[in-house]
Amino acid sequence: MLSNIELPQQVWDVIRFFKTDNIVFTFAGAGVSALEIICTVTGLLCVFLAVRGKVANFWVGYLYNILLFLLFLQNRLYSSMLLQPISLAINFFGHWRWTHPREGEKNSQNRLKVTVYSNGQRIIVVGAVLMFMFVWGYILSRIDVWFPSLFGRANLPYFDAFILGTVLMAQYLSAQKKLDCWGAWLVANTCNIILCAMAGLMLMTLVYAAYFVLAIGGFFMWRAQMKKEQQN
Length: 232
Hints:
Layout: H1 9-17, E1 23-27, E2 30-33, H2 34-51, H3 56-74, H4 78-99, H5 119-146, H6 157-175, H7 181-199, H8 202-231
Antiparallel strand pairs: 1-2
Helix pairs in contact: 2-3, 2-8, 3-4, 4-6, 5-6, 6-7, 7-8
């Protein structure tokens, strides 16, 4: 166990700071940890920059992935936890795509243009998310049986799996700068509001509500940008 490892006092202080039982204040009857507060600030900044179409959102996103991994690990939301390394990889991919568009994909700033999927492509996307939900949900529902020494019983495995699939798809669409990503983010944020409320992460519930509003703004801003780019 980690508690049996001899580490310098400064290291233990850092570990304690990022534990979810390091409660700073109480909100809606639930304790809010320092880690949850930092996640809140970092996440809002990341989404705000994405809505504005700023490449800097990826740099903030890298930190956000690490912080969320720690938060979800301690709350036994394993699907959301395992999302973070995958999300980190998608962030790297998106960072490259936005700053290295191919010929015909560039806007006037030499960045990736905003484009949109066809209805047929959207049906494929929805089908992929649902298939992922059933497969990954089953794995989560059995993970405590297969690896009892590593994992406890997963909370809401199929719901958690659906959120994971939706978020991954939203991130992939965002990395490709597809306008459709904001629809996926609206669904994912709605589900995350419910999930965090049920897990007692009340501050994160408000954060995802803010993401929901930002996603609406992102849709209209990206759509306006797409129309402008089509005219040039």
